[in-house]
Amino acid sequence: MASEPSGLSGPSPDGPPLPGRADRHGLPTVPGIPIPPGASYRPVQPMRPPPEVTGAPPHDPAVPPPVGEPPAVEGDPFTLAEHHTRAAVTGPWWAGAAPAHRRQVLAPHLLMLPDLTWWTYGAWARWYRWHPSDGRWVPCPPPGAAAARRSAVPVGPGTMPPPVPAEILPAAHDAGPAPWPPRAVAGQDVPDALADRLRQVVTQAALTPAADYPLAWNHFLHGTPSTIAATWSTMVWCASVPLFDSEAENDLLGLWKPYLAHPVGGPGRLRWLMPPPLRTIAGLYAERLRAGRPDAASQIARNMLMTAQAVRDDQRFEPKASALQAILEPVLEGPGIDHPAIPYGDQAMERHWSMRCPPALAPTLFADTAPGPGFQLALYDLAEAVRPLCGDPEDADFVEPRHAAVALLAADLEGYRPDLATPIGEWLDPETRGMLAAVLREPGHRLRALWPSRGRPPEPFRPADAEEAAAVLGAAAAVDFAWCRLVHDIPIPAGGFAVPGAYAATLGELRGTSDGVETP
Question: Which residue ranges does the record annotate as region Disordered (predicted)?
Fold first, then answer.
C-alpha cells in the first residue's frame, strides 16, 4: 500500500553529512568546510571519464576559436565575454575536450572588477561570481550599472584568475539564453484544451479499482486509487511555480475535488501548493513493484506520463513535464528498467529516475536533487525579472537587480521566518549574505523601500505592464518555494507570501481585473 509521503510535511530526515563522507547528493565533504559552499551545481548523474585527449584541440587552447563578428556593443566587457563564451561552446570539439582545455579556452574571457571579484559565464547560461573572501563561485547576475560593467577588465599579463570548477563550465546547451523563466500558474487563464486533456486523464485514472491500487495518504478520501494520487502529484510537480488561482475559469485543482479529503483552502484566491518531492511520485510506482504487481506499476507510470503530456504544451508546465516524460517513457518501453533500485527504497528510485533526465533539463530537478543550487538559480531569475524595474543603468539612483532580489527575499523572510536568514545565507556569496542580514536587521535600510506596502509594490517599483508583473510574480514565488524546500520543507504560510501577493494584485489591476489575478 502506498503510504503517506514523508516529504509533504515535516523536516527532511537527512542531517548534515559527516566530514570526509559523501552527502546525500553524492558530494564528498572535507573536514572544516560546510557542505553548502562545496555543493555541485548539477544533480548527480552517472559519469563516464572524459575521452582522453591525445593531441591539441582543433584550436590552440590558449587562443579562443574564431567567433565571428562581436556584438554591436562598445565598452561592455560582460556582453563581449558572454558572446565569445557562447560561440566557443558551440564548437564541434567542445563536447570531447577535457576540462583543462575548456578552462584554457575560456580563461581570456574571465573578468575582474575593481572590488577583486571575478566573473565567468558558465553552466545553465548564468554568470558566476568569485568573491575573494570565501573563494567560491556562486551564480550571480552581472552588474547592471553601466559604470560597473565598463570597469571590468579581462585577464591580463601577470594576472592569476581563480580556477573555474568543472561543474560550472558551460555545455553546448548553455550557448543560448537562460531557458524557462519561472511562471506561476495563477495570473493567466488555463487553456480549455489543456483542462480538457487533464480532465480525461483524471477520469481514466478514477476507473482503476482501489483494491489493486491501494493508497494510504490522508490527503485523499478513503477508497481513492493511487492512480488519482499519481495524476495529482504529477500535475503539481510539473508546474514551474505551483501557485494557482482558485477562481480561474479552468480551475485545475477542481478536477481532483471529488477525491480530496480536505479542500485546498486558504484566505484569498491564490493557492500555494508545495510540490511533492520526486521520490513521492516515484514511490507510488515503486510500491506496486515491491508488491509484485508490475502491471499496476506500469499503469501508474502511464497515468503519470499522460498527465505530463496533457500539460506539456503550456510554458508554465513545459520544462518539468518534458523532463518527467523523458524519465517515464523508458519505463513503459522496458518495464524492468527500474528493478535494480527496488530493494533500496524510494530515494534510490528517485536517484534512478534522475539519471534518465536529459542534461539540458537537469535544473528542473534541482528542487529534488540539489535544493541549494536550485535556490541560487531561483534568486538569479528573480534578479533578472526585476531588472526592468531598477531604473536607468546610467543613473546614479539605479538599483542593482541582485540587490533588489535580495530586498524582496528579505521582505518575505521578515514576514514569516527571519531566523532562517542564516542557513539560507550559506548559499549566497559574502556580499549578498551580508546585505540580506543588513536589510533584516536595520529598519531604516535603503532597500526596504522596495518592500510591498498595503498589499502593493511601492510606486517606483511598480511594473509598467502585465508582462513585467507576471514575471516578478512567478520569480518571487519561485524563490519562496525554493527556500522553503531548502530549509527542510517548512510549510508555506496559510496566507502565502507578501511579495508575490503584491505583484499578483498589481497584475490584476494592470489587466483590469480584481483580487490580483485574472478573472473570467
Answer: 1-73
What count of other Cβ atoms lies within 10 Å of the Cβ of residue 71? Answer: 12
Cα(357)–Cα(408) distance, integer angstroms? 32
Q: Are strands 136-139 and 215-216 parallel, antiparallel or unpaired?
A: unpaired
Encode burial over 286-321: b for 16+ CB neighbours within 10 A, e otherwise: bbbbeeeeeebbbbbbbbbbbbbbbbbebebbbbbb
- Per DSSP (E only), the strands in 218-348 are 243-245, 270-272
One-letter amino acid at 8 equals L
CA 261, 265, 271, 275 dihedral sign is negative
**The residue count for the chain:** 520
Q: Rounded distance, CA 97 to CA 172, Å?
A: 12
**What are the start-end ranges of the E strands in 243-310?**
243-245, 270-272
Instruction: Please report the DSSP string for 395-416 in residue order.
Output: STTPPPHHHHHHHHHHHHHHTT
CA distances from 87 to 102, 112, 128 (A): 13, 21, 18
Other Cβ atoms closer than 10 A to 206: 16
Q: Please state, in angstroms and rounded to a whole number, the distance separating the CA atoms of residues 451 and 411.
A: 6
For residue 57, pLDDT over 80 is answered with no
Q: Which amino acid is at 469?
A: A
User: Could you give the CA distance from residue 241 to residue 134 in angstroms, rounded to a whole number?
Assistant: 32
Other Cβ atoms closer than 10 A to 262: 9
Q: Are 161 and 118 in contact (CB under 8 A)?
A: yes
Q: How far apart are CA 431 and CA 22, in angstroms?
A: 29
User: Do residues 38 and 25 make contact, with C-beta atoms less than 8 angstroms apart?
Assistant: no
For 155-194, write each residue's pLDDT tens digit.
988 889 999 999 999 998 888 777 789 999 998 899 999 9
**Lookup: cell for 159:** 594576472
Residues 469-514 pLDDT 10s: 999 999 999 999 999 999 988 999 988 999 999 999 999 999 875 4
* Cell numbers given for 252: 485545475
**Tell me, what's the pLDDT at 13?**
34
Residue 225 carries which DSSP code?
-
Cα angle 186, 7, 318 (rounded to 5 degrees) comes to 40
Asked whether the beta carbons of 357 and 367 are under 8 A apart, the reply is no
